[in-house]
Structures are given as structure tokens and as C-alpha cells.
Prior knowledge:
This protein is mainly α. Helices cover 72% and strands 0% of the residues. The protein has 15 helices and no strands.
Amino acid sequence: MSEAHAFQPAHSVRLTDAIARSMRPHQWVKNVLLFAALVFSQSLFDAHAVMLSVQAFLLFCLAASAVYLLNDVNDLEEDRVHPKKRNRPLAAGLVSPQAVMSVMAILVVVSLVGGYFISRWFCALLMIYLGMNVLYSVKLKHIVILDVMIIAIGFVLRAVAGAVAIGVDTSPWMVLCTMTLALLVGFGKRRNELSVLKEEASSHRACLEGYTIQFLDMMMSISGGAAIVTYTLYTMANLTVQRFGSHALVLTTPFVIYGVFRYLYLIHVKSEGGDPSKLFVTDRPILLNGCLWIVACAMCVYTPVAWLPWWIAKWSV
């Protein structure tokens, strides 16, 4: 009896670790998008807005983890034939589907209740996000093109939710830019899966049977080009110029162009892109470029025109 009790704590630790890994906290980097509205609405030094953004970020992390748990349960057999996903706790048999579903239910309830306290509209967006992902897991992930579009819409919902949480408007150009960037990453992930799995691709993800490398390359080119154009149009839009008092934000477009090109390089030349969340925080050029873009945007958004370099200040409104 004493031996059984001795093994229980160790088992509990292993189970907790397995569930925590199944929640995929490394994927929470996607939810950083909720802070975009905070930065670009010039609310970064508003303590209340910052608090609301942090709360919104945490609630979306819980909701996203609930979605990952549901996906792991639905994709259990497919994950077991994938060279990397077979090591996920559920696919490896380290945790039971029943335990995963119980945790998922708790995460859904906590995220929705917490979202309601931020605002009813924010809670509604969370419900749309969760409902859309349930449909994705059950049916939509098997439909070619629509599967990637649903993922992209999820990113748009994050961007809009960040704005709703702090009560500011969202630029239509920024929404379109978010959508096209997400499509680029989504099609890149499908290309990587098709390239790595080859003949076994359709057994891992049924919709991969409807894709070809050539088609995905074309979709990525269109999405990448559209992302650059929509971001550039956002920086030059009248509302953007009036809000920030200058045309300086257009000078941040080279960072976006490089980011898109670097991602295409990693996909086509380095055959990476299977896990974009890890790629964006482990590839040093992308990481450095992202940091420089943030610094450049902060200078354009928060620096008074009088303190900008003369060749930028002369573009002021």
C-alpha cells in the first residue's frame, strides 16, 4: 500500500506535464497579435488598456489551448503516423482522451466567463473563435482551401478581439494584412506537410490529397504579395497619417517585405515551416527583423514629430 502511494505523486507530475504540453504553450505566441491594437491605438501607456489587453491575451491563450486539446483528440490516429506529431502526449499514450476532454471543458468555461467580464462583444468573439474551431476540427479541416482560410480568420479574430477589449477601432487595411499574412503561413505549413510526408500525407491530413506543391507555391506568392501591399496601404491611409501625425510609418514596410521574403526562403530553400510558431522565435534573422520592426513602429507611433529625424518629420501632416 505504501509503495502505491509513493508512485502516485510521480504519476500525477507526469500526467500534469503531459496535459500542459498538450495545451501547447509555445503556440501562445500567436495571441501576441491581440496587443497590436494596444500599440497602434497609442494606448501603450494607458494602464487600464494594458491590463485589459493582458487579460484578453491570457483568455485567448486558454481558448486556443482548448482548441488544441480538441484537435489532438480528433486527430489521434492521424498524428500517430506523423514523424513529429506522434510524440505528442496524447498520440504517445501519456494521457487519456477523457482527461484531455475534461481539461478542455474547464478551459472553455474559464475563458468565456472571463471574456464576459471584459465585455460582451469580446466574449462573443471568443465564442465565434471556439465555435469556428469546433467546426474546423469536425469537418472544415477536410475541405481544400477553406481549411487554411479558417485558420487565417482565427488570426483576424485575434486582432479584432484585441481592439474590442480596449474599445478602439480596427483599421480595415490592418485586418486584410493580418488575413493575408495568416494565409501565407497557413499555405506554407500545408506545403511543408506535403513535402515531408509525401505518400503518407493524405493519411495524416485528408485535405492534403487535394493540394499540390505547385498550387501551394502559387497561393503563397499571392498571399505574400497581398500582405505587403495591404500593409503598405495601411501605413499610407489617411486615417493612419492623421492619427500618428506623419507619413513615417511607411518607412517600416521594408521590415515586412524582408519578413515575407525570409519566410518564403525558409519554406522553399530550407524546407522548414512545419511549426510556424517555433520558426518565428527560433530563426534569428526573422526574430531580429521582428524586433527592429517593433522598435521602428514604436518610434513612428509614439515619438513626437518634432523629435523625428528631419527627413521623416518633413512628411508630417
